[in-house]
Write a structure and sequence with these properties.
The chain is an alpha/beta fold. It has helices spanning about 60-85, 105-115, 130-140, 170-185, 205-210, 225-235; strands at about 10, 20-30, 35-40, 45-50, 55, 90-95, 95-100, 120-125, 145-150, 195, 215, 240-245, 260, 265, 270. About 30% of the residues lie in helices and about 25% in strands.
Length: about 270
């Protein structure tokens, strides 16, 4: 078998090859040992593994993973469109979304979802560790109603040190980005609704920083679609209604275990014809 390199699509033998990853980078350690930093292809998780634990995913496995993701997106879109078809004729002004995503592929899929759903959205592919530096400027430019801060995350020591920010791969970056967004909010007298986090993110710290919704209370993997469902629910929620997790928990893969929050008012205005 050829040597694993950056960009390869792989699975981990020690985890029963359950998740398909892309190799983000390879670290060379003392003694010529190599560790791969991995990001999930269809879940928002970042992990690491020794090179020798990795298996190259076959083209069949890669295609299956891609098809499953596309199927979930299209199924979600079709269900939403069927609900809209049954409504009265109306002019709808939905909330404007600014979505920052650390993963280029997910950025493209997210934009496709928003477009097909007829939502006003700007999606920017920005690495997790650079989002805090970029968010204030982007908020000033686009003036959104809803901000999504996401990408990849994960616990370094799974099942332990829940209150140690250094045990999370990217939560500290998401937290700082939320704080910068709230600084913008205060300076511009806005009422920005924020979702923040990814797989296994430090939920309590994200909420304390100022998020309305965040992942992941149970420190579990969240679905690619979960942040989009939060953004959509607020964007199409009526301005006179306070949207809580109970309004869309059944749409999330793992409900309140994956995402929770304090809620927010909807951002949609309707004019009936």
């Amino acid at each position: 078998m050829r040597e694993i390199k950056k960009g390869d699509v792989v699975t981990r033998n020690s985890y029963g090859n359950d998740i398909v990853f892309s190799v983000k980078r390879i670290l060379k350690l003392v003694g010529n040992r190599k560790i791969a930093i991995l990001k999930g292809i269809n879940v928002r998780v970042e992990a690491d593994a020794p090179i020798e634990d990795l298996k190259l995913a076959s083209k069949e496995e890669q295609n299956k993973c891609e098809q499953e993701l596309e199927k979930r997106i299209n199924s979600k879109i079709n269900n939403e469109k069927m609900e809209k078809y049954n409504r009265r004729k109306e002019i709808v002004y939905t909330g404007k979304i600014l979505h920052l995503d650390g993963d280029k592929r997910y950025s493209e899929k997210s934009m496709m979802y928003y477009k097909k759903m007829g939502l006003k959205a700007i999606v920017k592919n920005i690495p997790e560790n650079k989002q805090a530096r970029a968010v204030y400027r982007l908020l000033t430019i686009y003036n959104p109603d809803i901000l999504v801060i996401t990408g990849h995350d994960g616990m370094i020591k799974n099942g332990a040190r829940y209150r140690d920010i250094l045990n999370y791969r990217n939560s500290r970056h998401f937290i700082q980005t939320v704080k910068e967004a709230r600084r913008y909010d205060e300076n511009h007298d806005k009422n920005l609704v924020i979702f923040a986090g990814a797989c296994q993110s430090y939920f309590e710290a994200l909420m304390e920083a100022g998020a309305n919704f965040a992942s992941s209370p149970a420190r579990i993997l969240i679905d690619f679609l979960d942040p989009l469902i939060v953004a959509k629910s607020i964007a199409v929620g009526d301005t006179n209604k306070y949207i809580t997790i109970d309004d869309f928990a059944n749409e999330l893969r793992d409900g309140k275990r994956g995402i929770n929050g304090i809620g927010a008012r909807g951002k949609k205005n309707i004019i009936f014809i």
